[in-house]
Amino acid sequence: MWGTVCSNNNWNNIETDIACFQLGYYSYGHSSIRGTTSGLFPIIYSYFNCQGNEATLLSCGSGLHSSIQYCTNNAIELNCEANCTSGDIRLVGGGYYYGRVEVCVEGIWGTVCRDSYWDNNEASVVCRQLGFSPYGSIAVTSSWNSEERGITLLTGLNCNGTEKSIFDCLVDANAPVCSSNWADANVVCPAHGISTYSNCTDGDIRLVGGSTEYEGRVEVCLNNAWGTVYSRYYDYYFAQTVCNALGFTSPGAMYMYIYNTKFGEGSGPILMYTYCYSSGNSLLDCTSQSQYIPGTSHEYDAGVRCETPCENGDIRLVGGSDPLVGRVELCVNKTWGTICDDYWDDNDASVVCRQVGFSGQGPIMKIYAYMINK
């Protein structure tokens, strides 16, 4: 007769390993307690007392129950690890192209320590070994799985980025034991476009698909590949940072996000998901850049329009509801600034209106520091 095993706070990893070994898997796995949802289950055993050297559960000391009882909250559920071949590698907890890195050593799956050595060189090797392009591969601090970590099998891994397998990399024999503070190594492999080598530097930015050099789809360089930035939210500081990085530092940068972006969808990988909480000079400095959430579609590629440089004497109207209305700004030394309204009257307003392309005729009203050419 088949029956369940009910936990009485005596089931632990030793019993789990023996049960997995008895089922034909290698002796390593995870167990958890699950409540049943229907009927009465015969409870065959309520506890085992294994020492770790047994070949079967029946070889362990146990508590036997022959009567039918409820087991509604303490039924044991196993998650055994499948057998693997030394040198195998996989990503766990995320998707097919991102997740926690696990390696197989002597038939056992385990993790790689995210220590001080872990960077994009190691990520490149992992992604190449899994069949992805190494260019644009990213070592990230994100973690997509909260399950038990398992054992750490590799520490002090030091790749140069060109190896075909993570097991071809050098290992620092003097590396410290993996601290729990370092956690597990995670990667994101380029999967949403063609990722080819480019002689660019991490953090480089370019604008693509715009009608001028001051606007376009934002593309960033990471690990020798150009890719797009995934964004579904308005982010003024993101725009300012992009424009600053490109040297377009005049005030008034605008962030443009349009569904199915105005500047066309990118053809390379999606390399970054970011939100900037202040303006800077590099997207790599944005606070949430390291918490990578992989993008799933190029329809959310971010685009930016930067303020074009002005020439001395240029005039513009800013902040109004239409082109006829606005605060008057004047360009001096390639910088936009305002005009004090001392002595300001319709004569001055007429000149401004003519300079920006309107007739300058008819009544001109000043309303709360704006002017309207009627």
TrEMBL record:
Keywords: Disulfide bond, Glycoprotein, Membrane, Repeat, Signal, Transmembrane, Transmembrane helix. It is found in: Membrane. Pfam families: SRCR (PF00530). PROSITE patterns: SRCR_1, SRCR_2. Its main location: membrane. It is a single-pass membrane protein. Residues 1-81, 89-190, 205-307, 315-359 form the SRCR domain. Disulfide bonds join C50-C60, C159-C169, C276-C286. GO terms for cellular component: membrane. It comes from the Eukaryota. This is SRCR domain-containing protein.
